[in-house]
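Researcher:
Attend to token order:
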Amino acid sequence: TLLSRFMLEHIDAADQSYPFAYLDFDRPSISPQDHFGLLAEICLQVSAQFEELDDALREVRDEALAAQPGGQNTDAERKLRSLVERFCRHIDSYLDAQESFFEWARPLLIVLDTFEVVQYDANQVKHLERFLRLFMDRGWPRLRLVVAGRKRIDTLVTAVEAHELEGIEVDGAARLLMRTADCASKPISSGAALDLAALLAVKRTLLSEPRVHPLRVRMIAGIFRPRKQQSGQEIALSLIAELQDGLKKGGCPARCL
């Protein structure tokens, strides 16, 4: 997805990054009901980005995992709130030391991806809102939330500022295709990736730049599966030929998917 690409590029520039956590609700291990598990996952990802925070956040993570399943009793909520406060203090302490006097306060970014999975059940949304309120009710100025999903999102604890997904530029889509192929142990050349991305691109208006919808990249990524006997390059060239054939017939290759 577009957010996946952002996270990958963000990791590459980790020496100058602000802390973030990427929670993809398409993963079975990420559950809106498991508040201790969500906090533990956030601690794990942030500590992987900043070695200096590893010891402190490992303690918070270990205690969160030990508290599973916490349920919704008063003791569990009190414990969770205490752990969230400790997490925020560790982040504040570290970032305060890194920021210059004239620098804006660096945020902590929490990305919630594939949010439509949560929206299938209104109770799941309520569970997630209870977790997010632990950060938001304390008025923590560093917190930034990005929520992505196929269904419209109007509110999540508070009003949501909506932005329509415009797609990825062709060069960016080519890099993402190469990464997804590499992850499946089916590497493809940069030339094949660029040709494939160009065929997947669509111009929304006559004067606009062609862009590739992330869902099309995701569909293509599913074709690069490790169990396939073909090499990644062979798969890419076959896809290119198929899409070019659609173009010759007067159609839009990207809309064939």
Q: What stands out?
A: The first strand starts at residue 20 and ends at 24. The first helix runs from residue 2 to 12. Strands lie at 20-24, 108-113, 143-147, 155-156, 158-159, 168-169, 211-212. The chain has a mean pLDDT of 83.
